[in-house]
């Protein structure tokens, strides 16, 4: 079965599991950037553990918001371009029980 993605609901980008996944990635990135392997210049400016935790949290939130905004803009552009007549993304779905049919050329 071949399915063409004609439209992306922008609200589904914001109200789904995607922001939670991005927040988890942001927290991990913040921990590595500010706590586990801090830049020496950054470590001098953030000497206390409280400040490092706040910096990691702000990094995680900023990363999540920036990525969600970026993906929302991409979804809006995708919708605009498909409404102008460009073809959408095509996905071929097959069942695990079925083998994809092989096309035979006439001999």
Order of helices and strands: EHHHHE
In terms of structural class, how would the helical and strand content be classed?
A: mainly alpha
* General shape: elongated
DSSP summary: helix tally: 4
| Average pLDDT | 84
* Separation of the first and last Cα atoms: 26 Å
Question: What is the count of β-strands?
Answer: 2
Overall number of domains: 1
| Biggest sheet architecture | 2 strands, antiparallel
Account of the protein in words:
The protein is mostly helical and 107 residues long. The chain has one domain. It contains 4 helices and 2 strands; from the N terminus they run βααααβ. Strands 1-2 form a two-stranded antiparallel ribbon. Helix 2 (18-36) runs antiparallel to helix 4. It is elongated, with a radius of gyration of 22 Å. 7% of the residues are buried. The mean pLDDT is 84.
